[in-house]
Amino acid sequence: MDLQEQLEHLKKETLAKIEDVSNLDHLNDIRVNILGKKGPLTEILRGMKDLTAEERPKVGSFANQVKEKLADAIQEKKDILEQEALTLALKAETIDVTLPGNTSVHGTTHILTQTIEEIEDIFLGMGYQIIEGYEVEQDEYNFERMNIPKNHPARDMQDSFYISNELLLRTHTSPVQARTMEKHDFSQGSLRMISPGKVFRRDNDDATHSHQFHQIEGLVIDEGITMGDLKGTLEVLLKKMFGEDREIRLRPSYFPFTEPSVEVDVSCFKCGGEGCNVCKGSGWIEILGAGMVHPDVLKMSGIDSEKYSGFAFGLGPDRVAMLRHGVNDIRYFYHNDHRFIEQFNVKESN
Ligand code: FA5
């Protein structure tokens, strides 16, 4: 067989092999074997040195055609086999489009946050600023500037978590009163603020007490502020929160930082005052502590108590949320049980 015949034979034989092959690995073996440096094609071409100068270009050109033809055939077969493999893989991966997809759990605005935001909106509508205080507070602001000096018995009611002798987790939001008053510039107008936030007490947790809860402090200072302003303001708040036909009542109380001091009750929103399980038969629900800011508290914050007067109040939004939503244990708010929290998905579902 001359070289041309050998090339023709190799072409035929290899094309038949390519035709028969049914997997990509074997096809690759053929490619390496035939077209590689140690393959039969190279071997045949080695014989070209014995050809005459006339024959050599003819055989060389034919050899190139054979090489190209085989390379093309291999590539073509490779495309086919790859396509088949892909089709098979897709068939194996059956997707049941009727199965439920992977859902992500959507969070809910916590009911306490919703309650606080609702109260904030009411006060923003009355021109109040919202001021944030410090959760870690100085003894001076938490107690002293609120007229509760060291060894004052009122400290017993608000035992705290101390970080050092002078630093503690605040027991109420009242220190924000002092921090705001000392900065306020009355030439710019009256002071009207609320301050919501977390507070902490060394209380034993039970259905109505938590060692961490929330308060919303309110403070208004200007010339000529009276108890009438306090009552009117709280009436607006409590009617918006508990219903327009609610009434409020002020009972004498004691806080070292207000004089006079009151506890504020709202007529029961469930029974309307008849007496029921929500108001424990009294017809009234105790909702917050308030009073006229003590002149000494004004003075300690650099305010002329002869010229200015004001009222303050401290409301527990946890208590408000419990009453409005019939939650009988404050601890539910802090357990972060999704089954409880997602029941109050009020905003998101509207
Ligand atoms: C105060 O903390 C005063 N700073 C409120 C105040 C501000 C009075 C301004 C006058 C002027 P009291 O200790 O009563 O007051 O707490 C206020 C409210 O916080 C209570 O009515 C109650 O709703 C809530 N509260 C108190 N202790 C707890 C507790 N351990 N767990 C849950 N809520 C509590």
Automatic annotation (TrEMBL):
Enzyme class: ligase
EC number: 6.1.1.20
One Pfam assignment: Phe_tRNA-synt_N
GO biological process, one term: phenylalanyl-tRNA aminoacylation
Main location: cytoplasm
GO molecular function terms listed in the Swiss-Prot or TrEMBL record: ATP binding; catalytic activity, acting on a protein; magnesium ion binding; phenylalanine-tRNA ligase activity; transferase activity; tRNA binding
Annotated ranges, domain Aminoacyl-transfer RNA synthetases class-II family profile: 119-323
Sorted UniProt keywords: Aminoacyl-tRNA synthetase, ATP-binding, Cytoplasm, Ligase, Magnesium, Metal-binding, Nucleotide-binding, Protein biosynthesis
UniProt key word Protein biosynthesis: yes
Subcellular localization, as worded in the UniProt entry: Cytoplasm
Domain of life per record: Bacteria
Subunit structure and binding partners: Tetramer of two alpha and two beta subunits.
Name of the protein described by the UniProt record: Phenylalanine--tRNA ligase alpha subunit
Higher taxonomy: Bacteria, Bacillati, Bacillota, Bacilli, Lactobacillales
Originating gene: pheS
